[in-house]
């Protein structure tokens, strides 16, 4: 069975094509905001509008399949930025009209989990979903991915991006942040905020900006943010493993690219006899292949296609009944 998936919830517009567990294409284009600014929803939506037809064409060419050969269509229906979701769902609806194929509405967060389970071979992991817009600790229980813990304010990726935007003007901030953190030598004290299973990063961000203004070197502040934030996340992951009685960790989302975070999780997992999997960058970040694969799973397990391509900007992970689990 061949599925085509459309992603476009935030900065990336992507079209992926999968044939069962083989990824045939994963085309994408990313909206890059002007230096020194963050994502502007209307401009990102405009970017998607301009990119959509070309990205679709690239995916079809890459996959070497005709549009007629696609069995199922899928689109990311939320959560995300409403103007971006509108463009994505309209594009999906138009493709459904044109092809007459079933169209599956996919939850973006769940797609991050499912592509990770499929590619890494994890079965029933605690999922660390760490991206620019999300920080959640998830695990399967009774037909759903439950949120065991999450940020009470901003996401970890957002904290990193905001800090770097103020300090250097670069966006996304993750890669340069990583490089600077590796050069840091002196830890500057930052607030470590874990409340039960939840986390908070805004206090750490404010303190980091202040310390930098007061003269701490950029490398030292990045190093200190890295050590503080990833230790907080590792602590909560370990508690989730223990509470849920699971023995796998899967890291998904753009922040999965952080070497240091992976290192901390691996140490924690090896001490507990658990396995640690990290989704590779092309598939950890927003992409169409994850939407295609999740749509295919849902379709195969009897989830109903949608009649109209609506979107839900605040669609929560635990609102979705996961009919296909534990298949991957
Ligand atoms: P979502 O819509 O799921 O919240 P997103 O739109 O933020 O996702 P992703 O591509 O999943 O998009 O994640 C992007 C985030 O990952 C950015 O905040 C970026 O700074 C961060 N990031 C990328 N590389 C690294 C890295 N090496 N270390 C830390 N953070 C990174
Ligand atoms: Fe994402």
Characterization of the model:
The chain has 328 residues and is an alpha/beta fold. The protein has two domains: 2-112 and 285-319, 2-Layer Sandwich (Nucleotidyltransferase, domain 5), CATH 3.30.420.40; 124-282, Nucleotidyltransferase, domain 5 (2-Layer Sandwich). It is built from ten helices and twelve strands. The protein has helices spanning 41-63, 82-99, 108-120, 156-167, 174-183, 202-213, 218-244, 259-272, 281-284, 288-300, and strands at residues 2-7, 12-19, 22-30, 72-78, 103-107, 126-130, 135-141, 144-150, 194-195, 198-199, 248-252, 275-278. The strands form three sheets. The protein has a five-stranded mixed beta sheet, with helices on both faces. A hairpin with a 2-residue loop joins strand 7 and strand 8 (144-150). Helix 1 (41-63) packs parallel to helix 2, helix 3 (108-120) crosses helix 10 (288-300) and helix 7 (218-244) packs parallel to helix 8. The mean pLDDT is 97. The protein binds adenosine-5'-triphosphate (ATP) and fe (ii) ion. Adenosine-5'-triphosphate binds at residues 9-11, 131-134, 157, 160-161, 172-175, 177-178, 253-255, 257-258, 285-286.
Outline of this structure?
This protein has 328 residues and is α/β, with parallel strands linked by helices. The chain has helices spanning 41-63, 82-99, 108-120, 156-167, 174-183, 202-213, 218-244, 259-272, 281-284, 288-300, and strands at residues 2-7, 12-19, 22-30, 72-78, 103-107, 126-130, 135-141, 144-150, 194-195, 198-199, 248-252, 275-278. Strand 6 and strand 7 (135-141) form a beta hairpin.
């Amino acid at each position: 069975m061949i599925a085509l998936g459309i992603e476009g919830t935030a900065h990336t517009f992507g079209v992926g094509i999968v044939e069962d567990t083989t990824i045939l294409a994963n085309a994408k284009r990313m909206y890059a905001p002007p230096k020194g600014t963050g994502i502007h929803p209307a401009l990102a939506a405009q970017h998607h509008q301009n990119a959509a037809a070309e990205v679709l064409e690239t995916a079809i060419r890459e996959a070497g399949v005709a549009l007629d050969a696609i069995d199922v269509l899928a689109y990311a229906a939320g959560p995300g930025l409403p103007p971006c979701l509108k463009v994505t769902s309209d594009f999906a609806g138009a493709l459904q009209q044109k092809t007459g194929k079933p169209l599956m509405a996919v939850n973006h967060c769940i797609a991050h989990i499912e592509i990770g389970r499929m590619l890494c071979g994890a079965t029933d992991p605690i999922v660390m979903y760490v991206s620019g817009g999300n920080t959640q600790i998830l695990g399967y229980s009774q037909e759903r991915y439950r949120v065991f813990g999450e940020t009470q304010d901003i996401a970890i990726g957002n904290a990193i991006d905001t800090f770097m935007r103020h300090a250097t003007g670069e966006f996304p901030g993750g890669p340069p942040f990583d490089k600077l953190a590796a050069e840091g030598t002196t830890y500057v004290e930052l607030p470590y905020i874990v409340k039960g299973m939840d986390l908070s990063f805004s206090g750490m961000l404010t303190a980091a900006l202040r310390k930098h203004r007061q003269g701490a070197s950029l490398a030292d502040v990045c190093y200190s943010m890295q050590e503080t934030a990833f230790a907080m996340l590792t602590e909560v992951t370990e508690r989730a493993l223990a509470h849920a009685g699971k023995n796998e960790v899967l890291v998904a989302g753009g922040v999965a690219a952080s070497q240091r975070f992976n290192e901390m999780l691996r140490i924690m997992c090896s001490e507990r006899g658990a396995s640690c999997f990290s989704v590779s960058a092309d598939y950890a970040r927003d992409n169409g292949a994850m939407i295609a694969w999740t749509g295919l799973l849902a379709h195969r397990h009897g989830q109903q296609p949608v009649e109209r391509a609506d979107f839900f900007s605040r669609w929560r992970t635990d609102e979705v009944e996961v009919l296909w689990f534990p298949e991957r």
